[in-house]
Design a protein that fits this description.
heterodimer; A: mainly beta; five-stranded antiparallel β-sheet; about 0% helix; about 55% strand; B: mainly beta; seven-stranded mixed β-sheet; four-stranded antiparallel β-sheet
Amino acid sequence: GESVGLHLPTLSVQEGDNSIINCAYSNSASDYFIWYKQESGKGPQFIIDIRSNMDKRQGQRVTVLLNKTVKHLSLQIAATQPGDSAVYFCAENIGAGGTSYGKLTFGQGTILTVHP
Amino acid sequence: DTGVSQDPRHKITKRGQNVTFRCDPISEHNRLYWYRQTLGQGPEFLTYFQNEAQLEKSRLLSDRFSAERPKGSFSTLEIQRTEQGDSAMYLCASSLVPGETQYFGPGTRLLVL
C-alpha cells in the first residue's frame, strides 16, 4: 500500500547547528503535508504544514520543503536547541474527492537528539 | 496545550475488561479523529467523525471497538473485552474542517495486563 516513510530514524546534532529531517511519500494524490513534533508521553504537536501548490514554507526557525517530482518532504530546523529534542513525524493528507479526505497517514518518525 | 483534552491520561486494565476513553475537541471543530500509536511507530488512523456522523472506520477497528460522538462535541471510544494487543496510546485530534490542521490531544495510554 502507499505510505509515508522517513529516511533517517535518528539524528544527533549539536546545539546551534541546523537540522534536516527527511520524509518520502508515495501517494501522488496527497495535497497537504504536516510536520509534527512529539515529546515523550505527549501527543503530536503541530509544527508546520505545506500544501501541494507550494514548494517551500517558512515558520519560526523551521522551513518545510516539498519536492513533488521525487515525492520528498523535508523539515529544516535552524539553530537547533535542546528543547527541540523529540520525535518528528511527517504526515500526509490524501487529496480532495477521496472518501478518506482529512485522514492523516504518518511516517515512522525520526528521533532528534540535540546535545548542549 | 492544543485545546484538545483526553481522559483518562492513563489506564491499566486486565484482559477481558471493557474500557472507555473520552475526547473533548477544540470548540467548534467539526472533525474529530481517533488514532492509535504503538511504541516506535507513528499514529495510525482508526476512525473519524464529521459532527455526529462517523464517516469512516479503519480495518484496525475490530468489532470490539466502538466510537460515538452523540452531540457532535465530545467523543468516546470504547474497547470491549480488551486484549494485550490493545495496549497502545490512543490519540484524539480535531480540525475545523476536512483538510485543515489537526490538533492532537495528550493521548490516553492503555496498558492491558
